[in-house]
Amino acid sequence: MIGIGLVGFGYWGPNLARNFQSLPQYQLAAICEMNPERAALASQNYPTAAVTTDYAAMLDMDGIDAIVIATPVSTHFELTRAALLAGKDVLVEKPFTRTSAEARELIDLAETRGRIIAVDHTFLYTGAVQTIKRLVEAGELGKIVYIDSVRINLGLFQSDVNVIYDLAPHDLSITQHLLERDPVAVQAVGASHAGNDIENIAYLHLEYEDNLIAHFHVNWLSPVKVRHFLIGGTSKMIVYDDMQPSEKVKVYDKGIVIKEGDVESLYRVYVDYRTGDMVAPKLPFGEALRVEAEHFAECVETRCRPISDGHMGLSVVRVLEAAQRSIKHHGDRVELSSI
């Protein structure tokens, strides 16, 4: 049984606590929470766990093998670093860190100490994304030429990060998981409407090699909640709508066929439209966070590499950092090689 120490019992912490407590592979041994009311709630809900405000003391407790961090991103680096130095494996909430430099330092430390870092990119463990990954790997879509994503809602305004750091990691991690490569460059524009210089709406444009582009719209000021992810391939296309109660993933056998003209019409291009069936594949059922917790247990026990490891976390943070730099320079193109 793996002893878990959970840091943070605010917004996301209770979901993590519930899933880790429910699995036979784990014992929720301790919870560290600074807010007295939230700490009291943690004690009430999990009476067998030691509840403390002293993180250093929790790291010294017997029977704790891994630390799960659900705190603001500004604290991720120091908390993760301390856990690794204490010989613990770590699962840290997204985004991994504030900067790529912090992420690289933690990855190096984990590799030196033989510890595992997993980043809580929960959507990678959904049945929808697992199915899309399988279809991409099987070549069902052909060559992917674009990705277009909308993740908007009347959101929870945050004081330490903007909407890019809050919402974009979900779609960036899905994109990284599907493509298994980093973009070449990033452009972004955004605006703040709360008087605090923290962007609450933003548009990200990513360039990849082979003329592939990806576009992401994130927004805390939408009157409706939209979770829409579109993948365009040369053979088939996928629409992933996470707000649908069923048929979240639809595969369309649609596209275009480009034919070159003859010698007399050398500069003309003929476009035919191909329209086939739409298929909604059956998706694996299960709460993504529970699947992720089971996967983390497997990684701790066998020392295998997590799907959403520190390197994936770094890839996402590099794009976030580039996007933030682009916003501050009025949408300038930022090459990832500079991050």
Total domains, how many? 2
Summarize the amount of helix as a percent range: 25-40%
Let me know the largest β-sheet: 9 strands, mixed
Tally of individual helices: 9
Secondary-structure content class: alpha/beta
> What is the CATH superfamily label of the largest domain?
Dihydrodipicolinate Reductase, domain 2
Oligomer state equals: single chain
Shape estimate: globular
CATH architecture of the largest domain: 2-Layer Sandwich
Q: Which CATH class of the largest domain applies here?
A: Alpha Beta
Rg from Cα = 22 Å
How does this structure look, described?
With 339 residues, the protein is α/β, with parallel strands linked by helices. It has two domains: 2-122, Rossmann fold (3-Layer(aba) Sandwich), CATH 3.40.50; 124-287 and 318-338, Dihydrodipicolinate Reductase, domain 2 (2-Layer Sandwich). It contains nine helices and 15 strands. It has helices spanning 13-22, 36-45, 55-60, 76-85, 100-113, 127-137, 163-179, 288-302, 310-328; strands at 2-7, 26-32, 50-52, 66-69, 89-93, 117-120, 144-154, 185-191, 201-207, 213-219, 221-233, 237-241, 249-260, 269-279, 334-335. A nine-stranded mixed β-sheet has the order 14-13-12-11-7-10-9-8-15. The protein has a six-stranded parallel β-sheet with strand order 3-2-1-4-5-6, sandwiched between helices. Helix 4 runs parallel beside helix 5 (100-113), helix 5 runs antiparallel to helix 9 and helix 7 crosses helix 9. The two termini are 40 Å apart.
